[in-house]
Write a structure and sequence with these properties.
The chain is α+β, with helices and mostly antiparallel strands and 140 residues long. The chain is built from four helices and six strands; from the N terminus they run βαββαβαββα. It is elongated and about 55 Å long.
């Protein structure tokens, strides 16, 4: 059994905003809200955590919370983070909680929700089809 979950947030691994990150997050959040009308379980978590394990991580993530994306990120101390997640580890130096659209999504259920919205909007005028003509499984 494979667990198909994707994390939705606009940050690079170093905590910088990716190109079109805010816009992509806003657009995708609108689609997730549509899918969740039909299948609320497509949203697995309404917030995400990014843990700092090195002093450089701490600096980068604190800057993210205060300068880069304060509307989505809150810095948490080691103790605040450990209290929040219920896990204690001496390597954790602190971290971010990401909210306001940053979330974990169950992709198959999300796609079923989008399809259900298409069906409820267009009824018999829409059909699911898989077209493989010209498809090359080796093309990546």
């Amino acid at each position: 059994l494979r667990f198909l979950c994707r994390l939705l947030h606009p940050l690079s691994p170093r905590g910088k905003l990716v190109h079109w990150g805010r816009e992509g997050l806003a657009s995708t959040t609108r689609l997730i809200n549509v899918a969740a009308k039909h299948f609320p379980e497509c949203v697995l978590a309404q917030s995400l955590y990014r843990v700092a394990l090195t002093p450089t991580n701490v600096q980068n993530l604190q800057r993210t919370a205060t300068e880069v994306l304060p509307e989505h990120c809150t810095w948490m101390t080691r103790q605040e983070l450990q209290d929040q997640i219920g896990y204690s580890n001496t390597n954790i130096l602190g971290g971010l909680v990401l909210t306001n659209g940053c979330q974990a999504i169950h992709v198959p259920t999300y796609l079923r929700g989008l399809w259900e919205e298409c069906r409820s909007t267009y009824g018999d005028r829409i059909e699911w089809s898989v077209e493989q003509e010209g498809w090359n499984k080796n093309s990546g």
